[in-house]
Amino acid sequence: MDCGTSMVKYILFIFNTIVSVIGILGIVFGVLILNSIGTIEVNGQVGFPPQALLPIILITLGSIVVFISFLGCCGAIRESVCMTMSYAVCLLVLLILQLTIVVLLFVNKEKFNMAMGEVIDKAWESREAREGGVFDAIQKSLKCCGRNGATDYVGQILSSGLPASCCEGSCLNPTNIYGGCHDKFVNFMDGSSETAKYAGIGLIVVELVGFIFACCLANNVRNYKRRNGY
Q: Which of 30, 104, 129, 170 has a CB 3.0–4.6 Å from the CB of 59, allowing a cystine?
C-alpha cells in the first residue's frame, strides 16, 4: 500500500482515538452534571427533574460517538472497506442530525424558551402535580419558589406559610426565599442550550474531517485491492 494511504489510515486511527476520548469525557461530564442535579421523589417513585434532559442527551450522544469512533478505529487498522464505509455512513447520519438540532436551536430560540417555560407552567397549573409533591420536588431541585415567586403562595402563606422547599433556611427571613421557578428553569435551559449549540458546531467540524478521511481511506483501499486482483 502506498505511503499516502498508510498516512490516511493512521491519521484516521489517531483521530478516532481522540474522538473516543472526547466521547468518554462527554459521558463523564454528563454523569457529573446529572449527579449534581440529583433525583426527585414523588409518591415513593424516584425520577429525574426536567433540567436533567440535557445531561441525559449528552450521555446518549457521548455513547453513540464512542461506538462510531470504535468502528472507525477498527475499520482503519484492519483496512476494511466495509467497516470504514459503515463508519462514514454512521458519521454522516450523526452529523446531519446534529446540524439539524443546532440549526433548530439557533432559529427557534424563543420557541424553545417558551416551551421550557410551559413545562413549569403546566406543572404549577396541575393540581395533581402540586398536591402530589411534583412541584415541591421541582422547587427543591431548582432552588426556586412558585411559578413566578413566593407571591404565588399568597393564600397558603396566610394559613400554613411557605413550603420549606421555597427557602434556604428559615422562611421567616425574606432574604432566604428563592425566586420563581419559571424564569429560573428558562434561564438554566437557555444557558445549557447555548453551550450545546457551540459544542455541537465544534463536534460537527470534527466529524466532517473524520468523514472525509474515512471516504478517502475506503476509496484508496478499494482501489489498491482492485489493482492487486489483476
A: 30
Contacts 24+ apart (CB under 8 A), 189-194: 189/51, 189/53, 189/54, 189/112, 189/113, 189/116, 190/109, 190/112, 190/113, 190/116, 192/51, 192/54, 193/54, 193/105, 193/109, 193/112
**CB neighbour list of residue 214: distance below 8 Å, 6 or more residues apart:** 12, 72, 75, 76, 84, 85, 87, 88, 91
Fill in the amino acid letter for 31: V
Reduced to 3 states, what is the DSSP secondary structure of residue 46? strand
Q: Match 449534581 to its residue by C-alpha cell.
A: 36
- pLDDT confidence bin for 16, thresholds 50/70/90: confident
The pLDDT of residue 17: 85
Lowest average pLDDT, out of 127-131, 145-149, 152-156, goes to 127-131
Among residues 26, 112, 121, which one has the least CA distance to residue 65? 26
Question: CB 207: neighbour CB atoms within 10 A?
Answer: 22
Three cell numbers written together for 191: 444557558
What percentage of the chain exceeds 90 in pLDDT?
0
Identify the DSSP state of 50.
Answer: G
Residues 48 and 34: beta-carbon distance below 8 Å: yes
